[in-house]
């Protein structure tokens, strides 16, 4: 193998690589021999097929396979010999078309272009001083949670004075659904309860009952959505003949044992204990997030290295696609956002750079300190995922076992936490008591940001533009 470095600028590398065809021929011969020993071809005994016959049948495909295998092997070797690690898969360009290489049996020449990961000199963690934000749950937190539950689980009573239906009222109705004048399965019910504004009925069904009075009969026109659970009703226009039996207004449930039992607890005291435990868990989780943010900010500010533009671009594109998908679901456009598109893109680019910077730091700290995931870590990640999709446990396990890329994505947060725990075990960490309000102070959504911190590191692409 002959190697010539054609480009070395920042993190970008380009190599011209030549493989002698005799190496291809040797690998090709080995593959043909292996096929011959395993082939079952009519007219020949198993494992006794002449190599010449195998060559005639599969020779071209085997040559292509041998070339591709050698290109993959040598491209990895070129980087490894120089102590380089590719940021993303290298781009390979063959100097000749595959057909010409095969027919001429000339040496294989190709160009490999890639960005490499930067060299990062990790700081001494013992010199890091951080404050761990801690907030203690108060009685008011439990009282607020009880009030919220009382509001979300109201009792319903008839209004003292007769009135028309309004938002959040519960109506008891009879209805008959018709499509083209005919009843359909599941479209009829008597004494059914409906909460106006709950969006439990299709389309604007509930909105058309606003202003109705007890005893009213109304014809409500709706259209079944194109993703309706009953495929026979998708995109169908329907008329519902509705009779209003009664109107009931919401009233916050009394905070007592009865409310607790409705929520699956034995008593109000048991409900308070459950809420207290959950609030403490929420506080600890929020504290952990704030501490991680502080650590990441410190690590980013105290390390200086170039960012591979390919990784930054990938992260940016993923973020932008997520925004477009979110806007599409909300039936909005970029024009509906507070900032101009150019400013949003600028903000997203800065966030992408920070994410890649932190990701590279996490990976390098983990690599240098030999931090790895064990089976228990992987099982925890799988268990958490299965809890999100009850009843689909076997499908989830099978999916991740057969999809290495998905498994890496699933376990990435677990690995990050292991690295964070390692670093935090080394730093000078002191608790700092803060208020609940400070603990849960939220940052503005990135699409609404008006100011963002300039990243001290720029992607390799941006550096070249200067």
Automatic annotation (TrEMBL):
The keyword Isomerase applies. One of its GO terms (biological process) is 'de novo' cotranslational protein folding. Residues 440-466 are annotated as: Disordered. Residues 457-466 have a biased composition (Basic and acidic residues). Gene3D superfamilies: 3.10.50.40, Trigger factor ribosome-binding domain (3.30.70.1050), Trigger factor, C-terminal domain (1.10.3120.10). It catalyses: [protein]-peptidylproline (omega=180) = [protein]-peptidylproline (omega=0). Its EC number is 5.2.1.8. GO terms for molecular function: peptidyl-prolyl cis-trans isomerase activity; protein folding chaperone; ribosome binding. InterPro entries: PPIase_dom_sf, PPIase_FKBP_dom, Trig_fac, Trigger_fac_C, Trigger_fac_C_sf, Trigger_fac_ribosome-bd_bac, Trigger_fac_ribosome-bd_sf, Trigger_fact/SurA_dom_sf. Keywords: Chaperone, Coiled coil, Isomerase, Rotamase. The keyword Flavoprotein does not apply. Belongs to the FKBP-type PPIase family. Tig subfamily. NCBIfam families: tig. This is peptidylprolyl isomerase. It comes from marine metagenome.
């Amino acid at each position: 193998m002959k190697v010539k470095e054609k480009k070395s600028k920042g993190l970008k590398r380009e190599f011209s690589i030549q493989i002698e065809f005799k190496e291809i021929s040797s690998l090709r011969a080995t593959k043909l021999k292996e096929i011959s020993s395993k082939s079952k071809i009519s007219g020949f005994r198993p494992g006794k097929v002449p190599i010449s016959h195998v060559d005639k049948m599969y020779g071209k495909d085997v040559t292509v396979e041998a070339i591709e295998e050698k290109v993959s092997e040598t491209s990895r070797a070129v980087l490894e010999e120089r102590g380089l690690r590719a940021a993303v898969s290298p781009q390979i360009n063959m100097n000749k078309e595959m057909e010409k290489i095969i027919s001429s049996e000339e040496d294989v020449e190709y160009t490999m272009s890639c960005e490499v990961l930067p060299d990062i000199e990790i700081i001494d963690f013992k010199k890091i001083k951080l404050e761990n934000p801690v907030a203690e749950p108060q009685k008011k937190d439990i009282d607020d949670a009880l009030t919220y539950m009382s509001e979300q689980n109201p009792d319903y009573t008839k209004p003292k004075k007769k009135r028309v239906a309004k938002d959040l009222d519960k109506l008891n109705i009879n209805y008959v659904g018709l499509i083209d004048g005919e009843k359909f399965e599941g479209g009829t019910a008597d004494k059914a309860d409906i909460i106006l504004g709950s969006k439990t009925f299709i389309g604007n069904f509930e909105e058309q009952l606003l202003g109705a009075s007890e005893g009213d009969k109304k014809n409500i026109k709706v259209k079944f959505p194109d993703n309706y659970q009953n495929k026979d009703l998708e995109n169908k226009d329907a008329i519902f003949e509705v009779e209003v039996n009664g109107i009931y207004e919401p009233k916050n449930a009394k905070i007592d044992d009865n409310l607790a039992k409705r929520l699956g607890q034995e008593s109000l005291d048991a409900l308070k204990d459950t809420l207290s435990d959950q609030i403490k868990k929420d506080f600890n989780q929020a504290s952990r997030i704030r501490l991680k943010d502080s650590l990441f900010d410190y690590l980013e500010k105290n390390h200086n290295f170039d960012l591979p533009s390919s990784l930054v671009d990938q992260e940016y594109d993923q973020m932008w696609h997520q925004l477009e998908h979110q806007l599409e679901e909300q039936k909005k456009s970029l024009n509906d956002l507070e900032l101009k598109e150019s400013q949003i893109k600028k903000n997203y680019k800065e966030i992408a750079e920070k994410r890649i910077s932190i990701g590279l730091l996490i990976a390098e700290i983990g690599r240098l300190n030999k931090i790895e995931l064990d089976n228990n870590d992987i099982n925890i990640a799988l268990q958490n995922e299965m809890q999100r999709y009850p009843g689909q446990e076997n499908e989830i396990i099978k999916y991740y076992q057969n999809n290495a890329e998905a498994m890496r994505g699933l376990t990435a947060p677990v690995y990050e936490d292991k690295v964070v725990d390692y670093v935090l075990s080394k730093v000078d960490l002191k608790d700092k008591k803060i208020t609940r309000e400070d603990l849960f102070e939220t940052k503005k959504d990135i699409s609404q940001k008006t100011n963002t911190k300039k990243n001290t590191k720029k992607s390799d692409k941006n550096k070249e533009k200067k």
